[in-house]
C-alpha cells in the first residue's frame, strides 16, 4: 500500500499513480493526446511553429493535393493547343513551297552550260531579252513618236503607261516580299537593278502577260500572229524557270499580276482629249 506522501506527490505533479482511483478512471476514458496547456500556449506564441503546423494540417494537405490534381488534370491552354496543332492552311503552304522548290530545281535544265539542256541556254537568253523592260519601253516610245494617227499614238501611249506601271508595281512587290532567287541561278542577266536580286514575282512574266493581252486587245492581228503572241508569252515564262532565274510560283504569280495590270490600264485609259492635252504641254 503506497504511503500518503507518494499520493500527495502524484497529485502535486499531475501524473497518475499506479493503483490509484485516478489511474483507473484515466484508463477507462479515451486518451487525450493534446498537448498540455502550457505547451500549446508556448507553441501559439511562436509564429514559425504556428506556420509549420498550419502547413502540415490535414485540411491543408488535402487542399494542396486537390489543387495539384486539378492543375495536372488541366489540358494545355488554347494557344498551346493551336501551336501544337498547325492549321491546314499552314500545312498546305509548306507542302506547296516544298513542291515549288523541288520542281523549280528539276526544271532548271539550262541554268549552266554543262547542264542537260545547256546547249539551249543562248536561245533562252534571247527570249529573256525579248521580255526585258528596256526594249519594250524604247519600242513603245518610238512607235508613239512615229505614228501618224491619233488612235495609234493613243494606243502606244497607254502601252507606255502600262510598262511604267509594271516596273513600279513589280519593284514594290519585290522590295516587300524579298524572296531570294534560286541558288542555282547565275547573275548574268541583262541590265539588272538592285531590286532584281529578288525573285518574287517574275517581272518578265508580268510584262509578257500584260503586253500580250494588250496587243491582242488593241491591235488587229491575223490568227497566226495571235498564236505567235500567245506562244511568246508562254516561252518567256518558261525561259525564266529553265534558266534558273525564278521559281515556278514566281512565274505563275507574275502571269496573274500582269493580267491584273492590263485590267488596270484599261480602267486608267487615256482618252484622245487627254492625249492632246499632254501633247500640247510637251509642245
TrEMBL record:
Its EC number is 3.6.1.68. It is an enzyme of class 3 (hydrolase). Residues 64-73 have a biased composition (Low complexity). It catalyses: (2E,6E,10E)-geranylgeranyl diphosphate + H2O = (2E,6E,10E)-geranylgeranyl phosphate + phosphate + H(+); (2E)-geranyl diphosphate + H2O = (2E)-geranyl phosphate + phosphate + H(+); presqualene phosphate + H2O = presqualene alcohol + phosphate; (2E,6E,10E)-geranylgeranyl phosphate + H2O = (2E,6E,10E)-geranylgeraniol + phosphate. Residues 154-266 form the Phosphatidic acid phosphatase type 2/haloperoxidase domain. It holds the Pfam family PAP2. It comes from the Eukaryota. GO terms for molecular function: sphingosine-1-phosphate phosphatase activity. Its main location: endoplasmic reticulum. It is a multi-pass membrane protein. One of its GO terms (biological process) is lipid metabolic process. It is found in: Endoplasmic reticulum membrane; Nucleus inner membrane. SMART domains: acidPPc (SM00014). Residues 1-81 are annotated as: Disordered. Keywords: Endoplasmic reticulum, Hydrolase, Lipid metabolism, Membrane, Nucleus, Transmembrane, Transmembrane helix. The chain crosses the membrane at residues 157-177, 214-235. InterPro entries: PAP2/HPO (IPR000326), PAP2/HPO_sf (IPR036938). One of its GO terms (cellular component) is nuclear inner membrane. PANTHER family: POLYISOPRENOID DIPHOSPHATE_PHOSPHATE PHOSPHOHYDROLASE PLPP6, SPHINGOSINE-1-PHOSPHATE PHOSPHOHYDROLASE. Belongs to the PA-phosphatase related phosphoesterase family. This is Polyisoprenoid diphosphate/phosphate phosphohydrolase PLPP6.
Amino acid at each position: 500500500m503506497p504511503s500518503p506522501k507518494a499520493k500527495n506527490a502524484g497529485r502535486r505533479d499531475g501524473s497518475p499513480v499506479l493503483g490509484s482511483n485516478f489511474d483507473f478512471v484515466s484508463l477507462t476514458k479515451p486518451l487525450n493526446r493534446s498537448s498540455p496547456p502550457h505547451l500549446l500556449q508556448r507553441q501559439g506564441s511562436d509564429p514559425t511553429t504556428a506556420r509549420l503546423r498550419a502547413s502540415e494540417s490535414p485540411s491543408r494537405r488535402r487542399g494542396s493535393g486537390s489543387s495539384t490534381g486539378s492543375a495536372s488534370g488541366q489540358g494545355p491552354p488554347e494557344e498551346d493547343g493551336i501551336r501544337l496543332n498547325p492549321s491546314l492552311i499552314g500545312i498546305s503552304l509548306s507542302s506547296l513551297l516544298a513542291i515549288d522548290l523541288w520542281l523549280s530545281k528539276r526544271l532548271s535544265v539550262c541554268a549552266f552550260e554543262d547542264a542537260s539542256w545547256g546547249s539551249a541556254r543562248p536561245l533562252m537568253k534571247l527570249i529573256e531579252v525579248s521580255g526585258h523592260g528596256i526594249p519594250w519601253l524604247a519600242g513603245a516610245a518610238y512607235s508613239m513618236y512615229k505614228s501618224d494617227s491619233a488612235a495609234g499614238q493613243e494606243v502606244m501611249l497607254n502601252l507606255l503607261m502600262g510598262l511604267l506601271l509594271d516596273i513600279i508595281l513589280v519593284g514594290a512587290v519585290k522590295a516587300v516580299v524579298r524572296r531570294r532567287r534560286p541558288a542555282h541561278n547565275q547573275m548574268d542577266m541583262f541590265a539588272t537593278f538592285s531590286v532584281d536580286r529578288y525573285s518574287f514575282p517574275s517581272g518578265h512574266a508580268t510584262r509578257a502577260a500584260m503586253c500580250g493581252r494588250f496587243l491582242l486587245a488593241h491591235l488587229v492581228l491575223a490568227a497566226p500572229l495571235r498564236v505567235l503572241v500567245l506562244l511568246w508569252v508562254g516561252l518567256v515564262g518558261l525561259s525564266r524557270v529553265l534558266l534558273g532565274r525564278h521559281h515556278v510560283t514566281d512565274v505563275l504569280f507574275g502571269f496573274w499580276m500582269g493580267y491584273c495590270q492590263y485590267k488596270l490600264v484599261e480602267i486608267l485609259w487615256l482618252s484622245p482629249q487627254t492625249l492632246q492635252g499632254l501633247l500640247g504641254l510637251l509642245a
